[in-house]
Structures are given as C-alpha cells and as structure tokens.
Amino acid sequence: MKTRILILGAGFGGLELSTQLSEALGESADVTLIDKSDGFMFGFTKLDVMFGLADAKPVRMPYAKFVKPGVRFRRETITAIDPAARRVTTDMGAYEADHLVVALGAEYDFAATPGLTDVNEFYSTAGAEKLRDLLPRFERGRALIGVCGAPFKCPPAPSECALMLHDYLEQRGVRQACEISMVLPLSAPVPPSPETSRALIAAFAERDIAFYAGKRIAAVDAKRGVATCDDGAEMPFDLFIGVPKHRVPQVVLDSGLAQDGWIPVKPRTLETRYEAVYAVGDGANTGTPKAGVFAERAAKAVASALIAKIKGGAATEYDGFGTCYIEFGGGRIGKVEVDFFSGPKPTGTYHEPSTALREDKDEFGSFRRARWFGM
What we know:
single chain; alpha/beta; FAD/NAD(P)-binding domain; 2 domains; five-stranded parallel sheet; 9 helices; 25 strands
C-alpha cells in the first residue's frame, strides 16, 4: 500500500513540499494537496497591485497548472482537522493520512483591532485593489501605515509600502502636500539585521517619513480620522493603510494544534506534538520570520524527513536561512540574507540597494513560477 501524505495549504510550503516529494517518490507515494483557493500569488506582488504596477489576474498562477507525478490537487475547504487520528474533513469529503503536514499559513484577524474594517489594508489582494483605486484621489493630508500586531508576514513589507508610497506621490507631484508616517511593533524594520534596519531608517529620514518603532495600532476611528496606539497615543490620519493582526486559521485553532495563536513545533524538524504531524510556513512557531522563503526552506526539511522514512537514508534539518528582497524605491532593491540557527543569535547580511538586484528578484519569482506551475 502506498504511503499516504496529506498536505493542507498550497502556499510556498505546500507547493515546494509537494514538488520535492514528487521528484523523489513519483507515483510510489500517494500525495494529496488541498487548498480552498483556485490559484497562488506571490505576496510581494500585492504592493505592485496597490501602486498600479501590476494587475492581480495576470500575476496569479492557477492551481490547475500545478501538475506533478504522484500528487493530487484538491480545491476544497477544510472544515475539521483531527491531528491525533491524522484525519481531515473538507466540504467535499474526508481524508486519512500516514503523514499530515499543516501548511495553511496565517489569516487576518480584523476583529482584533476595533475599526480596522472601516479603513484600508494592503495584505489581501482585495485590499490592495481597493487602495489602487483609492490612491489616485489622495492628493494632500496625512498617510499612516500602521501594523496592528506581531508577528506578521513579510516584516519588511510596511517599510517597502512607505518608500513606494513616497515615490508614488512624488511622481504625481503631490508629495509636498502629504505626510507619511509608519507605526511598527518591532524594535527595528528588520531586527535580525541592524545594518538593513539602519539603511531603511536612513531612507525614511531622507524622504521625510516619520517612523515609530515598538508600538502597534490598537484601534482605528475612521470618523474621527484617528488611530490609537497600544501606549494610548493618538495619531491623526487622512489615509490609513493597515497591516491586520495575524493568527492561524480558525480550523487550526479548533483542532487543538495551536497554542497562543500559533502551532508549536520542533524548530529544526517541524514536528508537532502529534505523531507524524508536521507544520510549516506562517502558521508554525519556528522562531523564524513569517515569509515565503522560510516556509519553502522548512518544507524542504519536512520533505527530506518523509523521503528518508519511505526510502531510507538521512534527513536534512531546517536551517532557518532565508533571503528577502526589499523595495527601496527609485527602482532600487536591497537584499538581506538572514541566518537564524547557525550561531547563538540570528544574523543578517545586508546588500545595498541597486537596480541589478531587481533582476535577482525577478529571477526568484520566475524560477518558482516555472518549477511549480511550468509557466
């Protein structure tokens, strides 16, 4: 009987895990990948959508094109997870597995921040499209980019948003009539890399962007045009651009897998407290950032473990390494390489912004588009 491997979620983690298993095991294993969506989109493209640099439909990759030997994709909504029995129920049926991998990512908890639903956010595709239509009408006043909780996906994204907003307003000739502020609950824009953080803070200062670290947006009053921080400070705005608080999907909370909003795992193996159940990606509490590159790297470790169990041999553990590209505006992109597990504390290597690094970022996307979807 074939080994049954069930993967929940077709983001960076689920796609790479399925691909690795297909390459190593082919038709000798029974791999099922489940996701409720019809396609995948890189998170960083939402900023492009927001600023009118791309349309969502062309950059979205349909799961119908994800075709791998030994892998079945099912577009279904997961309604229950029993990690002890490794049994999953969907709106279309039920599945049982010898190995279960939860890669459902993080969802946005709008209710955790009073008033957030009355303003704007750019982390969802719909939110980015709404801002794309709204921004051309913003010609003067105070723009506030506010993060409502940590951890959140792609830590550099709010900084990128601020720098790209500066460029956008400059190009329209209205920057001098506008103020830009950013509120971030982290101690720095990229805490593991002081050099990257210093470069971003210098870029903010150069562009007259006010930066407030170590505080989060606790409530928003759209009628008054005021956001309240967790320290009680009020910040007025004419345009609010938010990052919602994150948490695992409700079905994961209901399963008992999560603690304090996230799934606890062994950081190097991604094993949960349930036998033969793993978690990768944004929903797993690994101690590394919630970003696609880390989900992909963790998925490779789980693939290695499963392949070793089925075929024999040694498994490779998750190394906690990732590379993030950062939009600095003006067509320039910086890069930071972060290593979380090699030393006593996380380290980051900063690469100064350049137009040449845009080619690297483009290659990052095109390689995965081809690898996963043959596009």
